[in-house]
Amino acid sequence: MTLYPVGYNSGYSYRVCFALIYICVLNYMEHFFDLPVTYKDQTLSLRARLVTFGYTYKFFIMVNKYEIQVERDDQMNWRILNYDPEIEIESSLLEAIVASLDKITE
Q: In sequence order, which ranges of the chain are alpha helices (DSSP H)?
């Protein structure tokens, strides 16, 4: 594929520029919100963001100054992608986060 300068007459470069803008900007959306999580009889408000990539989406949730990434797998179960086991986050808190995500995505 040849990329022509923007001023080139064929119009081809405009199509390529529009396609790149669509892929990089318009096809990627990010929404910030507070996720209410019920944990140990308290309601926590965790800062989160929903990021959509075309037809898929991921949640990025701040827990104890660390951001965890949560998405659905092929069986539509939640999985935590970049969870570092050395970070001290209780598994019951992670289960509570997953339960909250189930509530808001019903």
A: 12-21, 91-104
